[in-house]
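README: folding subset

This subset contains proteins for which both the sequence and a predicted C-alpha cell string are available. Records are stored as plain text. Below is the entry for ATPase (320 residues), shown exactly as it appears on disk.
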Amino acid sequence: MTDLALRRLPADRERLLRLLQDYGVYAGVAVLLLVNIAATDNFLSAENFRTQAVQVAPVLIVALGMALAIGSEGVDLSVGSVMALATSLLSLYLGYGLWIAILVAVVGGAVVGIAGGSLIAFVGVQPIVATLALMVAGRGIALVLLPQLKDVRDPGMASLGSGDVLGVPYLVLIAAALALLVAFVVRRTTFGRQLLAIGDSRPAAKLAGLPVRRVLIVVYVCSGVLAAVAGVLATARLHASDPTSLGTLMELSAITAVVVGGTPLSGGRVRIGGTVAGAVLIQLLTATLIKHDLPPSWTQIAQAVVIILAVYAARERGKR
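--- output ---
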C-alpha cells in the first residue's frame, strides 16, 4: 500500500463516521421501511401507517424535550415519571373540566422541571443525579395520587385520542407542531443560541455573561412540560390513566431517538430533524420485532445496540 493510500485511510474513516452520525438514522429508517415492505403483511396499508404515527407521537414529544436537555450537556431521566404524574393529575381533575385537567397536568410537569433545573443550576447537582431522584419521586407521587389504573370516560379525551383532521390524527398534528416549534426555538431564537453555547462550554458561557442558570431552568421546564403533554396524549389514546406503567422506560426511548438522530451527549448541538427520524426509527424497530413475533425484551436489546453505535461514532469523531 502506498504512502498516499495510507494517508487517505484516516480521512476516509472520518468521512464515514461523519456520514454515519449525520445521516445514519435516515438510512436506518429507509432500511427498516424496505424490510417491512418486503416481509411484513399489510405494512403499506393506511391503517398501519396511522397506527405507527399515533404510537410514535408521545415518544417524539418526549424526545424533543430530551434533545434540549442533552443539547445543554445534561439529561432528563424524569420524563417517564412526569408522564405518570400527568396521567394521575389528569384523571383526578377531569371533573373540573377537560382544559382545567390538562392545564393541571402540564403545570405538574413544569413543577418537576423547575425542581430539576434548580437542583442543577443553583445547587450544582449533576443532571443525571438530579433527574434520577425526580424519576423515583415523581413515579411515587403519581402512585400516591392514583394507586391503580382508572378508565378515562370523557368525550373530549376520547376525541383527542382518536380524532383527526383530513385523516391525520390529532396526536400526530400536535407532535408535528411541537417539533416545528422546538426547531424554530433552537435555530432562530436567542434562547436557542444560548442553550447551544452553554452546552458547548458552560464556563465560557458564564464568562461571556450568558444567563446560564435561567437557561438551564427553562430547558428542564420545557422537558417537563413536553413530557406532561405526552402523558396527556398517551392517556387520551389509551382511554385510561395508568401511572404504574405509563412512561416506563420512556427515558430510554427518548435518549435513543436523540442520540441516533445526531445530537451528541457532549452537548452544544441539537438536531431536531434527526430526533424526529430517531423516534420513527425506534417505533419502526419495535413494530418490526413485534410483528415478527419476537419478545419485547429484544426491543430493549436492539435499542441498546443502536445507542452504542451512535455514541461510538460520535466519540470517534470527537477524537479528531
